[in-house]
Amino acid sequence: MYKLSKNVINAPLLLILIISIRIEAQIITIPSPPVIGAKSYLIIDATTNFEIATLDPDLRLPPASITKLMTAYVVFQALKSDQIMLSDEITVSEKAWRAEGSRMFIEVGKKVSVDDLLMGMIVQSGNDASIALAEHIAGNEDLFADIMNQYAYQLNMTNSNFMNASGLPDTNHYSTANDLAILAKAIIKEFPEFYKLYSTKEFTFNNIKQPNRN
User: Fold this and answer.
1) DSSP string, 57-68
2) Does pLDDT of 33 surpass 90?
3) What are the residues facing 205 on neighbouring strands?
């Protein structure tokens, strides 16, 4: 009778060993959640909604300039409905001109297009641009904040409340990582033509060149 060599491993055993090694390799290569100096975060795949890493994603916090995602969403909706146009020329108010914090450096009384203001808000995180856009769409920033909250409700952002278009501090101005992820996904899905603007590396206005604050 023919006998197998002692050095030959039978096929089923070899297959089990290979599968075991592959599974172990996959487990080893899965990275740990990142160590970030933040109170809350949420990292997801926007296409599949797969949660990659998270830390207290429903904690209410001041969203600061991430507020401008909602400001942009309202502007995109106004453009989609033909309420406004990119070519519209907006006269800069004193309130917009005096905006504190990051700015695109618009000047009071001067006319600036919606297109430029949108770039100034998205690329340079301009508080002045945010206020100017809010006033153009709603008449004043308070009414614009009401529109922001209406859209937040429609998107099921249940832990958010907006008091202004720029993200300047206010006790009642808050959001969460989870809500902002909902908003980001909505922008990606509903407005791909504007979403690509967020990758713009720099923008020059009034002879002042500023890099993308992302």
Assistant:
1) TT--B--GGGGH
2) no
3) 208
Candidates 95, 102, 110, 125; catalytic one: 125
Known catalytic residue: 87? no
Residue among 3, 6, 40, 65 flagged as catalytic: 65
117 has pLDDT over 80? yes
**Which candidate in 68, 130, 160, 166 is catalytic?**
68
Q: What's the pLDDT tens digit per position in 53-65?
A: 899 999 999 999 9
Helix or strand (DSSP H, E) at 36? none
pLDDT tens-place string over residues 88-104: 999 999 999 999 999 99
Q: Dihedral sign, CA of 188, 194, 198, 200?
A: positive
Which residues have C-beta within 8 Å of that of residue 133, sequence separation ≥ 6? Answer: 71, 75, 90, 114, 117, 118, 121, 165
| pLDDT at 11 (0 to 100) | 57
The helix-helix angle for 141-154 and 127-138 (nearest 10°) equals 90
Q: In this structure, which amino acid lies at residue 112? A: V
Annotation says 125 is catalytic: yes
Asked whether 212 and 202 are in contact (CB, 8 A), the reply is: yes
Query: Could you tell me which residues are beta bridge partners of residue 42?
Result: 54
DSSP, residue by residue, 70-89: HHHHHHHHHHHTTSS-TT-E
